[in-house]
Design goal:
The protein has five helices and four strands. Helix 1 packs across helix 5 and helix 2 runs parallel beside helix 3. The chain has a single domain, classed as Rossmann fold. The protein binds 5-nitro-6-ribityl-amino-2,4(1H,3H)-pyrimidinedione.
Length: about 160
Amino acid sequence: MTRAGSSGNQPPQLDGSALRIGIIAARFNDHIVINLRDGALRGLDRCGVADNNIIEEWVPGAFEVPLAAKVLAQSGKVDAVICLGTVIQGDTPHFDYVCSEAARGIQDAQMSTGIPVMFGVLTVNTEQQAIDRSGPGIDNKGDEAAVGAVEMALLVKKLQA
Ligand code: INI
């Protein structure tokens, strides 16, 4: 069944021209995260978000992303926040702690602020999996998170109106 305004997993046409969007990106594995950031900027551009309505800040690692995202969401300066990072499985349980706290903290940031906070953090077993998810196409997870941020920001505004 096709529902009005949707087709498969594609969001309806999104007009982000009046939106202000934040990006919080983790420097750890920045050779991957920079490509997620570029993907996010492409996604925002396709949705009509103006360059001067984008605030971008970097933090040391994925573990620090939730706090920065929450403070930015609380600031009143943005309508949604895109969180970007890359956590790659290593030899110790560190991976599990960083992933689960990043995911938990990001969900907490959006639930406690009422501002959409998108989970564009790769949690992968190998570097190749990260490379495959941060390429130039629309399957780039930063791009995906950006389009989701615009969709959610517009939805929250509509529901609040
Ligand atoms: N941070 C990441 O963003 N990705 C990782 O793969 C990673 N690993 O593997 O350790 C990582 N660790 C750093 C962590 O996010 C914090 O910055 C650090 O623990 C200081 O709080």
